[in-house]
Write a structure and sequence with these properties.
single chain; Alpha-D-Glucose-1,6-Bisphosphate, Chain A, domain 4; 3 helices
């Protein structure tokens, strides 16, 4: 069983608009994420309902996922649902002083993912506990890259 909510946060000395310009540019996700190497956007600009095809990589393993943007509030939140496993990935921007707190999360409703996803996590990723440790580390890496970009 997956942890229902995995999240990491970072404080960034930049405006919500600056941080939003980075996190909402899904075409550049591969520059920040250690696992999602490329997001192909369908239908022009990213907005609620936009669909993506993502290419993910972990070591020698490469796999595609399909997503749909399920939340899109400029300067506040963007989230997308992975079709193959039902998880939702999100970025939330919360103003804090002269900057923001940026939170990245992955939600697995009721701690459940698809049977194929659970099987692959167990067999290819060393089990759920190891995989979730890796997800936390990946979130921290991604948030750090966003922070450096927004503050430069």
């Amino acid at each position: 069983m997956a942890t229902e909510l995995i999240e990491e946060s970072i404080d960034i000395d930049a405006s919500p608009q600056k941080v939003w310009s980075i996190v909402s540019d899904l075409r550049t996700m591969g520059e920040r994420s250690p696992q999602c190497k490329k997001m192909f956007i369908f239908g022009g600009d990213v907005k609620q309902g936009t669909r993506t095809l993502n290419i993910n990589r972990r070591g020698p393993l490469v796999w595609p996922t399909n997503c749909k943007v399920v939340a899109f509030t400029p300067n506040q939140e963007i989230a997308w649902k992975i079709v193959e496993n039902g998880t939702v990935w999100a970025y939330k921007i919360t103003p804090k002083g002269d900057g923001v707190t940026l939170t990245e999360s992955r939600t697995a409703a009721n701690g459940e993912t698809s049977k194929i996803s659970s099987f692959l996590v167990d067999r290819a990723f060393g089990g759920n506990d190891n995989f979730e440790v890796e997800l936390h580390a990946g979130m921290r890496e991604t948030l750090g890259k966003i922070k450096r970009s927004a503050e430069s």
